[in-house]
Amino acid sequence: MNATMTYADAFHQTFAHESDFLNFLKDIQSRSHWDRHPAHDLEIIALDEGDPLTQALHRQYEHLGTEGILDDTMEHTRLLLKAQDELTPVRSCAIKTILDRARISGSALSQLSKPHLAEVLNRCLNIARGNALLWYSDGKISAVHGGDANDYAVLEIPELFQHAVQYLSDHFPGYTFAGGSFDHSMVTAIWELTDQDDLIETYRTALTRHGLLDDETSIRPAVRLSTSNTGISGANLYPMLLEGAGSKIVPLGSPIRENHKNGADLTQFDENLVKLFAQYQSNLDTLTELLDIELAYPANVMQAVLKELGVGKRLAMEVVEQYRAQTGDEPDTAHGVYQAMTEVLFLLQRDGATGTKIAAMEEILARALKMRWTAYDLPGELKW
Length: 384
Known about the structure:
Blueprint: E1 12-15, H1 18-30, E2 32-38, E3 43-46, H2 52-64, H3 67-75, E4 79-83, E5 86-89, H4 95-102, H5 114-126, E6 131-137, E7 140-146, H6 157-171, E8 176-183, E9 187-192, H7 201-209, E10 219-227, E11 236-243, E12 248-251, H8 266-274, H9 276-289, E13 294-295, H10 298-309, H11 313-327, E14 332-333, H12 334-341, H13 343-350, H14 355-366
């Protein structure tokens, strides 16, 4: 998508250089702001191409040179949010937060016409108590959170990444930026912790003992920071490994989380950064334990675990068939199966998935580290 169309709901961009990434985040923030309004005063308005309001808005946006914002809204949500007589287009990523603030849910809502959806939302917002916290970004509403003191806590995205960079610079000198990604739902970046062999020494020793490592095999610790203003992610730090020349990602268990709740702030985030070293040790111990879990039917285990994790059938079966083609029906360890499962991430990259989707899949796969692998070690043909 055109890099100038940052207003578009489907906009996403990747970054190879840290300075470009950080400057982009600052630029986005300069066109964004937060505001509070009583929730019961909010109104959702449905747009139709032929109605007088839509025509008037087209003329207004064309006069301002921002007609792309309204055109993109007509292509996606076809909704406006009215707050204190100000009409603002609603971005796709805001819909879930609006439903949450209105305290309604259900698959049927997505099947309603826009006028009927607006009517349902307005009836529920009209009886909502307390404030709503609105995030305006690039000409649209991107989120509508609870706005009272014990509700959503704002953690500004550029500041989070600046704090992460400063911590890495102070404590992991020589780190390298491995890439970043932005879309309106989530922002994420990975840093490789170069020359930090002490973090992974025990794991490398275990791999050598099992004949799985030689002097030329490259394994580097890395960390991902993912965060969002739309409620789908806190300020979460994900320890991981990067393997080989292609920097294959091996997720290392659950992240260190900071949710946007209970007065969360940058002080707590800084404390979480300090926990990184201990998190590596704990999660690498769990990964190392998989080396001693023998599986008689590893392909069946992989298929069952991927299904249990909720990985889509198409991706899961492609990885399973790839594994079968490489190993046949030979026994393997849980470690070998987990390593092969991470090919799902490569397939997502191949298919052009956004950084948001890849980061979400990393967290899904990481849950496998603590599953009871032997419970899935069964013979026979499995049904999906």
